[in-house]
Amino acid sequence: MPTGQELHAIPSDETLSAVSRGKELSPATASVADTARVAATVLAPTLRGGVIKRRPRAMALADRLQLDRPGIRLLGRLRERYGERPLQLRIPGRSVTVLLGHADAGSVLARTPSPFTPATLEKKAALSHFQPHGVLISDDGNRAARRGFNEQVLEPGRAIHDLAAPWARRIAERASQPAAPELDWDKFNTRWWQLVREITLGGDTAEDRELTDLLGALRLDANWAYARPKRKQLRNRFLDLVRQQVALNRPGSLAAAVNATPADAATDPAGQVPHWLFAFDAAGIATFRTLALLASHSQAGAQAHAEATAADPSEPRQLPFLRACVLESVRLWPTTPALLREAAEDTAWGRKGTTYLVSTPFFHRDAQRLPYADRFEPGIWLDGRAAEQPALVPFSAGPGACPGRDVVLFATSTLLANLLRRYRFTVLDKRLRPGDLPATLDHFTLRFALEPAG
Ligand code: HEM
């Protein structure tokens, strides 16, 4: 079983592109018409769906029209036309370059934060609505200390976190609560957030919704980035609540780990927690989609059931197959469809300030390169096939990769194991055709019938 570290390793010299070996190919320049096409089919649907908080109506429309597919096809056609080199768009007043080569995408992520910083203009504008000191939008001065702090608390590279035992017990308790014969997103999501509050802040926060409701409101503002003024009072109320909750130091929570980890004031330890709460939303979405994949693929479903029933999931343990299934759900439907980096200095590709876009739906579903592009193939995360691909990056890659990935993979795989032990799930629609999976999957409208597992 590869560790989280191996799964998201920095690409080797072999997989790195010419740019990182010092033989940079200068970018091609897109025609005005191609720039307009990228804006309409790649950028606009991502923004419309809600980058920071998904919008149910926009997601339903995107699913009906399969809005991710035209963007994937367009970038493939542009690669045929312009070659694998980066493609600079013609956007007045901004320098934006789309990466079309897998190796280039891996290379940019590997060269984070210098010269390519993750703290881009757009991310700062959006995320500062609710996490002004988060590592992802921190500039050079604070980034290293905040990144180090996140790694110490979240323990990337360790499949079983120090706090995994109390989390596994909580997850088993939640999964054993009585369930209605039908499971929809609202029911799942209510329980998911109870768990997120318990894991992040501790035991008796399960029913305390004020903090996460405030976060929800601020995230809707964040979708608009600079187009919506900050609601400073609301943000201060939210950040104060986070600080108060973290200070309560409840045992078994990430908050307790925050308090036990030395940090200077500039790191703002409690100020890292808003990003974690926000990002657990993506983990809930990924879990729900994984459930749908397993329910509609009988062989993988049986393998997952066998893993789930092999031992008591209220004890923390490695669940390699279920972890791979969650990774595969995020490959198929990336929760960060636009990975952005900004050049902090002039590079051979362009001037300082240029924004680089790694469109994950394009790379993850690249049928020209991946025989399994539109199939559910969890095995790629276990047999080395995914690791050979520098642009299969559900949790990003390199020094800016998600430090929460092993917490996520532990929590989601453990929850899935508990659910699969108890119930047989049937998806109540026919969207997930094995072998030809949709490019867009609206999780809000997924529904399952539940029967006790035999
Ligand atoms: C399915 C769930 C998740 C996915 C797919 C995911 C994916 C990602 C991705 C793609 C990035 C890079 C973003 C960028 O470069 O713009 C990222 C960054 C980050 N993630 Fe996650 N994430 C998830 C959940 C979490 C959770 C639950 C936590 C914390 C408990 C977390 C903590 C972070 C942090 C702190 C960063 C910023 C890292 C940095 O700037 O160095 N993530 N995540």
UniProtKB/TrEMBL annotation:
<dbReference type="InterPro" id="IPR036396">
    <property type="entry name" value="Cyt_P450_sf"/>
</dbReference>
<keyword id="KW-0479">Metal-binding</keyword>
<dbReference type="InterPro" id="IPR001128">
    <property type="entry name" value="Cyt_P450"/>
</dbReference>
<dbReference type="GO" id="GO:0005506">
    <property type="term" value="F:iron ion binding"/>
</dbReference>
<dbReference type="Pfam" id="PF00067">
    <property type="entry name" value="p450"/>
</dbReference>
<keyword id="KW-0408">Iron</keyword>
<dbReference type="GO" id="GO:0016705">
    <property type="term" value="F:oxidoreductase activity, acting on paired donors, with incorporation or reduction of molecular oxygen"/>
</dbReference>
<comment type="similarity">
    <text>Belongs to the cytochrome P450 family.</text>
</comment>
<dbReference type="InterPro" id="IPR050196">
    <property type="entry name" value="Cytochrome_P450_Monoox"/>
</dbReference>
<keyword id="KW-0503">Monooxygenase</keyword>
<keyword id="KW-0560">Oxidoreductase</keyword>
<keyword id="KW-0349">Heme</keyword>
<dbReference type="GO" id="GO:0004497">
    <property type="term" value="F:monooxygenase activity"/>
</dbReference>
<dbReference type="GO" id="GO:0020037">
    <property type="term" value="F:heme binding"/>
</dbReference>
<protein>
    <submittedName>
        <fullName>Cytochrome P450</fullName>
    </submittedName>
</protein>
